Amino acid sequence: MPTKTMNDDLGKHAMNARRISCTTLLMLCFSVANFAHGADEDTPPQRPNVLLIMVDDLGYSDLGCYGSEIETPNLDGLAANGLRFSQFYNTAKCHSSRVSLLTGQYCIAAGDTSLSHAVTSAEVLQADGYFTAMSGKWHLDKQPTDFGFQRYFGHLSGACNYFRGDNTFRLNGEPWIVPDKDFYTTVADVDYAMQFLNEAEQTTDPWFLYLAFNAPHAPLQALPEDYAKYKGRYDEGWDKIREQRVQRQHELGLLPKTSQPSERPAHIPAWETLSEKRQGFENKRMTALAGMIDRVDQEVGRLIEHLDETGELDNTLIWFVSDNGACPYDRVSQKIEAEPTSGDVSWSDSTGWAWARNSPFRLYKQNQTEGGISTPTIVHWPAGLKTKAGSIERSPAHLIDILPTIADAAGSTIPTTFADRDLRPVSGQSLLPIFEGKTINREQPIHLLFSSDRGLRDGDWKIVSFRQGPWELYNIATDRTEQHNLAHQNRDRLTQMALKWNEIAKEVLHTQTFDPKFGVPSDNPVSMTATHPEWTDFSVDPQNNVRGGTGRKKTPKSKANTSKRANGPIRARKNTQLERRESELHLTFTGDDPGIAIDRLPENIPPGPYRLAFDLLSEAEGNGEVFYTTTPDQSLPKGQHIPIEIESDGQWHSHTISLGEATKIYRLRLDVSEGKGLAQIRGLRLLSSQNEPVIRWPITRTKVLK
């Protein structure tokens, strides 16, 4: 394990290294790269090195080469001398995109975070003689060193404090202590990436490096100099910034000049209508985000400079991708009156800026609309690309295509068997023909799914469903921003695509099918009136240590108690927000030990023994428990309790829990999480000894079923 002195030295090196300017050398290396485009096309390249860069929560328009005002000259240079995709898709969520990136499979098919039905790109390339290394965010089970990476530095968690890290940092499988000062995660990721490259360059083997930045994922924390650089640039607000970004996207040729950006939805107010306090905080949030994205570009530039100096740039296949679009989830922010330039200040995301950052599209991270799934993708490989420098590729592609492409470029074979894993076929396909200036036909549509958001892209057509809502249908060729829902005009096409979604869900992903509602009266996109409990509530001013999402206003105690009684016998326990939506309970957990409880069951229910049954969709932390009391004088959580194993994969799962041999129960409590997150419960019911429903929830008042 590294000593504290070693960590401090590395931290100081990180802070010094980030001040290095690589502009001059970068221009030189791009000139060399451009010359390489004219090399003998009949000479096949040697096995390439592979540099796979993933950023976290980057919006479609967050880079200069995709329309942004944020200064990203190094990534813009890669695009100018490489290839940009205008329709490259991800899964709209952090961990599932990482699974697809590494395995060439849809997340659920691969075994989710366990990767139990897949092999990783590191395992494929290591078996073929590559030196393999990773630096950055993992967010899957076990560690990268368990999945083919010979070297690893980074954090296993889904997010961390940029200045302080967390206790999940590892170096080559062993715990690594974050320095007390002079540390910033984005810089440290590249420090270790370069250390691993220096080691790889001592051999004659090609190398594979996976660099997974946590930025610009919340908490919003920027280095002081990066934050200072963008002060004042966002005074005019998100309406103007979005308008400017869309205009640049037209000028860059990313969008047809005739296309119209999606309209501002009802949940995003016009900037000028915000209070002065709200404007001030929102201005600072975007300033922080810009500084974080700028820093990513600076660190990528440092890595490119290194590759140029070592002569590796020409035959390094570089990918730059994002795991999903900009994040709208406004959770808890601390010290909003300060500047976010230290580990003491921690801010959450803004739904308003997520809308601007995903220009010109609609909706956000987790949604399968273009705003959630379409993000910047750059490929740079002078020795292998036959396309014109700076080209824009408009064919739809997906993260599942990256492993097949890398294997194709390296001449490697993806195995069909692997020790201790039951492998499933990859669903992606090689994009190497595109690199050679050719076209490809997709073998099957692109399947889109996370939690209750769904979609399917088949040629020019796309269906999408927002949070279990009705299918919407769009012709992406003429309506890239999904403004004109054609579900009613093209019912046959919609039906066939919905059937195809179910077929792939069942046969490829091995997950549940989906039977949405049809016949919705409006043809308008649901995004115009959509709401979400974690999107910013702009009707109130921001506050410290209070959730920023909708419905977070404090309620007087007496009113709060009345509200709970009005909801019938179910109450929200501590750190739990409960909302009833038709036959479902929607739960938001804000801290430890959340759950729901029924403090009094009807006295005239049939005798037990009983079983508690329900369907659960969870995106929350940990497992659960059921508590129940068998005497009237016991209070919860006294009495009996039964642990429940919870699958927090964003999918519906059925649970039936036997409540022992008790013939009478008086109180009931259900915990489906141990910490923060979201969950939905449907079909909650108490079953009798004859397996018949005794009580169904949610109910406005207790009703005994005979």
From TrEMBL:
Keyword Signal found: yes
Record-annotated Sulfatase N-terminal domain positions: 48-411
First and last residue of the signal peptide: 1-38
Top-rank taxon, per record: Bacteria
Keywords from the named record: Calcium, Hydrolase, Metal-binding, Signal
Location of the region described as Disordered in the Swiss-Prot/TrEMBL record: 514-591
Calcium found in the keyword field: yes
A GO molecular function held by the record: arylsulfatase activity
Entries under Pfam families matching the protein: Sulfatase
UniProt feature, compositional bias: Basic and acidic residues: 576-585
Family: Belongs to the sulfatase family.
Designated name of the protein: Arylsulfatase
Taxonomy of the source species: Bacteria, Pseudomonadati, Planctomycetota, Planctomycetia, Pirellulales
